Amino acid sequence: MTLLSYQVFMAVVEQESFQKAAQVLQLTPSAISHAVAGMESELGFPLFIRSKQGVYLTNYGKELFPYIKNVLNSDEYLHQAVAQFNGLQKGVVRVGVFNSACVEWMPSLLKGFEQEYPNVQLDIYQGTYDDVYHWLKDGVVDVGFLSASSVGELANDPIYKDRIVCVVPKDFKTEHPGYITIEELKKQHFVTQREGCDADVNNVMTKYGLPGGGGSYIVDDMSAISLVMGGYGVCLVPELVMRKMPFPVDIYPLEVKEERTIVLAYARGDVFAPAVSRVREYILEQFEGELNHEV
Questions:
Q1: Predicted local confidence at residue 295, as pLDDT
Q2: In angstroms, rounded to a whole number, what is the distance separating the alpha carbons of residues 31 and 171?
Q3: What does the alpha-carbon distance between residue 83 and residue 263 come to, in Å, rounded to a whole number?
Q4: Is 290 within the bounds of a domain?
Q5: C-alpha 155: how far from its chain's center?
Q6: What is the mean pLDDT of residues 32-57?
Q7: For range 193-214, the mean pLDDT
Q8: DSSP code of 148?
Q9: Which CATH number characterizes residue 58's domain?
Q10: Is residue 69 assigned to a domain?
Q11: Stretch 55-80: mean pLDDT
Q12: CATH number for the domain including 212?
């Protein structure tokens, strides 16, 4: 199989259509179809399920996906290295990021990095902790923002500490001015996010035996805070979540100090492509000293 075959495979996966993949690669739909058929013939098994709803990977295709992605990543890294040898800084770097980090940090990071390295393109992939972790493992993204509790065995650099706080409706009164106790929290109804969306909060709730959400399976922070605003319950969130949240709610620190550590994680920790190295260095510079601030 050729590099073009792998590019066709990835374009079909991303576009879920032979027609759209052809447009992206500037080929004819027939050429895409022939390339896929050639790969399937050479491999001896089907890669895609064709249906009226779209084109999707078979189980065989899903198994091969990370390997093909790694081949394409290696080709991109090779081009970046050649560009560096020629005195250029160019390439594409894909960054995975969870919601609150995306809202709070990515606008300024993107703008600042683009000004310093205009020939390096940053592609942003937003998702849950689980999404970012698997994107890193499968080579979909090069670097990713994660919590230390979700990074697993991936190489990483800790960059930020973020305390866990309690969000309550405006008319809520705590038993102690200025903070909320664990015993008080045990009496509350909680709005909780779906498993895999906020492992740090889930860990805190488990640690102190706090009640579950009882029917709330929320994915995004804004929806959870909206339910709190409406009086459905209270919730625990990392403080970063509330920085730009536009809802009229109150925020209380816990009587105990609980926090999450945010890390910058990597698909590979042993070697970095030139453009990936520039992104890593730039982000670490922006967060220098943040780990030592009081939360």
A1: 43
A2: 63
A3: 29
A4: no
A5: 15
A6: 87
A7: 79
A8: T
A9: 1.10.10.10
A10: no
A11: 81
A12: 3.40.190.10
pLDDT above 70 for 162: yes
Q: What pLDDT, on the 0 to 100 scale, is given for residue 85? A: 53
Q: Which two tokens stand for residue 74?
A: 């290696």
- The pair phi, psi for residue 119, each rounded to 5°, is -95, 0
Beta strands (DSSP E) in 98-195 are 120-126, 143-147, 156-168
Note whether 182 and 258 are within 8 A (CB).
no
CA atoms of 72 and 59, how far apart (whole Å): 20
Which among 32, 48, 63 is the end of a domain? Answer: 63
Residue 86 reports pLDDT greater than 70: no
* pLDDT (average), residues 32-42: 87
Average pLDDT, the chain: 86
pLDDT at res. 277 = 87
**Structural domain for 228, as ranges:** 161-259
Q: What letter does residue 124 receive in the DSSP assignment?
A: E
* Residue 256 CB contacts under 8 Å (≥ 6 apart), including other chains: 182, 208
**Residue 178 resides in a domain:** yes
| Number of domains the chain is built from | 2
Cα(295)–Cα(293) distance, integer angstroms: 6
Domain boundary among 63, 83, 109: 63
- Give residue for tokens 């800790």: 158
Query: How far is 208 from 239, CA to CA, in rounded Å?
Result: 19
- Residue 218 resides in a domain: yes
Q: What is the dihedral of CA 56, 62, 67, 73, to 10 degrees?
A: 40
